[in-house]
Amino acid sequence: MNAKKVQKDHIEQNFQTTNSRGVWASIEIITHYKGVKRSVDTDDASLPNKLNQFCAQFEKETHSQPVPFNQGNVTPPVSIDVNYVQYKFERLNDRKAAGPDGITPKLLRTCAQQHCQSIHRYF
């Protein structure tokens, strides 16, 4: 009976602090939820054809005329300062996955002040 009360109090505390991640984690513990692992059905012989058709729809040629460039409505260049780059780095979510380069958001957030100057050059 004590374990149920502790778990109930834990869920209520997460609700009060608006910690939805903690609420769902507690519910998964109570219900013994393991998640659903999905995999591609490789036994389907028509899968390669379906994938080819899907990819081919993006490669279709269009025969329309290009829109002429109107030089009167030129968009001004984007200006991003160093403080904005640092601000964006500091607001990254630590729980997100690393990018294709293997750099985690936590690392970027931790080193925001040191690296914002060098990253700013790309903008």
Automatic annotation (TrEMBL):
Domain of life, source organism: Eukaryota
Protein name, entry field: Uncharacterized protein
Gene source species: Holothuria leucospilota
